Task: inverse folding
């Protein structure tokens, strides 16, 4: 177990591992080099970090300077981050998917002096805007082929290969200076600026201190006690996002776990089989896809195989419910569960590598039925909740106490309040210590205060004051309540739809009902100030192609929406069926099927794959109006 104290900082965590948990020669990082997995030790990681630190000290980088990273998850990210953090510089990680304009804004707003670049595509993006970035002095590509890419004639920014940083000699004098600077760091010092992707408005730089990160890790490890130094995490969510940074990278730095980097999302399934991880962070969309493919694979052939699959799921559900109720499943049910495990569950688990203790889902709400599905298989999925501004974790599921449809118990050391949206009365304040399994309260805005709350928005005091009130409560903008002692998220305050009759509709739970259909991949609900709800639907491409034998060219047609009558009726059957689970004012009365998904590139989605409601509603205003001028079927 890591030793936390009042002087702990992000770079001190990894040093502590080498001093108290692992020998320097033991494996820390694992990545695919050519066709083989390469292991990198804790000692080699720290050597590279010291070389990076020495290089930047020679270049005049000082405490508080902002240093950029625009790179995929990799060992190079860790070397650079550990190197700059131990001399007091600040990590500014930028989403690789952002546009040139957004990247330029972040570089200038934060005053980045050097930026680490991961691939030729990103390198071209950076050199194109470098002339507009006043304080940017160094561009540092990690790939050797950068010299083949022509630079703009007027570019003054210096390009230095990352290999040169790693080859920087570290003298005894350099080492002593790095140690002095690292030990002089205060927990209150800023560790990172993370720019919120935001569904509206200009990105804001969230200032997170070493204390924010270290306390968040400490609290999470106290709540999820099964993580230890023997674990292997598979990392694939972007380190530019606070969730992966804390839940994988910082946790592993603190606890001495191994980190293996997936090659890509497309190769994730293959990498899981090769690495055999014990823990991985993920997003609900990935779990939904695994769920959909498992259901489809298990039932596609029909007949006996489908009957066995469905019987196994029912058996798993019954067994899970007995265990969660604290009851003994008994000999007969336990026997049936063992058969289900052998015939069905073990085959699904093999595809994950067969060693998973749990997966941690965050970034968005996990549909209850998907969480229950994994529970029925015996694969534990813990849910967490938080924001960039809260470091990020505010609540997370306990390993041995799960309530599906909730995001778990309040973590130690903070307070979470539920505030009435209209009257501003605080309806309830809960802490880790006040947890009661039968506690419930009314719905309202979720507010929080304590060690997880950011230091503020960089150079934006007015926005900071708007987000954090005079009593130190940070207002999340999320709607929720406490249910059976756990926090339950309803929706985003800004997403709330108020129909023409004054009825409040929270889109997320309604969308999740319709997303139970295997025919639907995404759903965007519309209806603010309208008489009824409509939706844009993105179909599951694989299922749609299979059902109607569609060629790839079908999805490359210029028409934005699919109007084929048979396809509309095919989707419509599921919409009508699933509408029965909703109140009349929550039911979709009309919809359009979008040929291709909303995208980050078109400005319709944030890098964390949240729909930009205002952008979409403005961009497709005419299409939305059509859904309210067409005749619709009455209930």
Result:
């Amino acid at each position: 177990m890591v030793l936390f104290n009042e002087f702990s900082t992000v770079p001190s965590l990894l040093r502590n591992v080498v001093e108290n948990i692992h020998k320097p020669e033991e494996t820390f990082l694992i990545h695919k080099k050519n066709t083989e997995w390469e292991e990198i030790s804790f000692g080699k990681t720290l050597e590279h970090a010291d070389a990076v630190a020495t290089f930047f000290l020679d270049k005049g980088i000082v405490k508080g300077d902002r240093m950029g990273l625009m790179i995929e998850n990799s060992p190079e990210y860790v070397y650079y981050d550990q190197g700059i953090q131990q001399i007091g510089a600040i990590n500014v990680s930028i989403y690789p998917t952002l546009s040139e304009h957004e990247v330029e804004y972040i570089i200038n707003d934060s005053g980045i002096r050097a930026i680490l670049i991961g691939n030729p595509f990103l390198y071209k993006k950076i050199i194109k805007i470098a002339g507009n970035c006043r304080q940017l002095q160094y561009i540092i590509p990690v790939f050797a082929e950068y010299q083949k890419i022509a630079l703009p004639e007027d570019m003054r920014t210096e390009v230095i290969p990352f290999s040169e940083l790693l080859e920087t000699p570290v003298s005894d004098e350099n080492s002593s200076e790095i140690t002095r600077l690292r030990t002089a760091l205060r927990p209150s010092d800023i560790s990172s600026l993370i720019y919120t992707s935001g569904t509206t408005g200009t990105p804001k730089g969230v200032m997170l201190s070493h204390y924010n990160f270290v306390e968040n890790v400490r609290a999470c490890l106290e709540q999820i006690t099964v993580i230890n130094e023997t674990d292997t995490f598979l990392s694939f969510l972007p380190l530019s996002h606070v969730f992966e940074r804390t839940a994988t990278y910082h946790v592993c730095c603190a606890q001495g776990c191994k980190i293996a980097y997936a090659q890509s999302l497309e190769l994730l399934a293959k990498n899981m089989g090769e690495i055999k991880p014990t823990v991985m962070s993920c997003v609900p969309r990935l779990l939904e896809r695994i769920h959909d493919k498992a259901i489809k694979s298990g039932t596609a052939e029909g007949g006996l195989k489908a009957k066995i699959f469905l019987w196994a799921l029912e058996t798993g559900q019954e067994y899970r419910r007995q265990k969660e109720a604290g009851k003994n499943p008994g000999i007969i049910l336990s026997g049936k569960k063992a058969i289900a495990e052998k015939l069905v569950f073990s085959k699904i688990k093999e595809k994950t590598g067969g060693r998973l203790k749990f997966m941690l889902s965050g970034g968005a709400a996990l549909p209850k039925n998907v969480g229950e599905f994994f529970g029925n298989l015996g694969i534990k999925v813990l849910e967490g909740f938080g924001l960039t501004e809260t470091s990020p974790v505010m609540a997370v599921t306990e390993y041995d106490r799960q309530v599906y449809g909730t995001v778990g118990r309040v973590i130690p050391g903070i307070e979470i309040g539920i505030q009435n949206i209209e009257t501003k009365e605080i309806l309830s304040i809960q802490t880790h210590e006040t947890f009661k399994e039968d506690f419930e309260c009314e719905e309202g805005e979720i507010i929080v205060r304590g060690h997880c709350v950011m230091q503020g928005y960089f150079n934006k005091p007015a926005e900071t004051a708007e987000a954090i009130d005079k009593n130190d409560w940070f207002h999340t903008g999320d709607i929720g309540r406490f249910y059976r002692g756990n926090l339950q998220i309803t929706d985003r305050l800004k997403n709330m739809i108020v129909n023409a009759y004054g009825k409040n509709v929270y889109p997320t739970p309604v969308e999740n009902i319709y997303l139970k259909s295997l025919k639907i991949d995404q759903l965007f609900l519309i209806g603010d100030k309208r008489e009824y709800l409509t939706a844009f639907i993105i179909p599951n491409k694989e299922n749609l192609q299979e059902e109607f034998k569609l060629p790839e060219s079908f999805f490359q047609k210029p028409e934005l929406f699919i109007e084929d009558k048979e396809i509309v009726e095919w989707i419509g059957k599921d919409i009508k069926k699933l509408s029965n689970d909703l109140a009349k004012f929550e039911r979709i009365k009309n919809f359009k099927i979008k040929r291709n998904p909303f995208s980050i590139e078109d400005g319709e989605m944030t890098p964390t794959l949240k729909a930009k409601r205002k952008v979409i509603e403005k961009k497709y205003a005419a299409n939305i109006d059509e859904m309210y001028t067409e005749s619709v079927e009455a209930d």
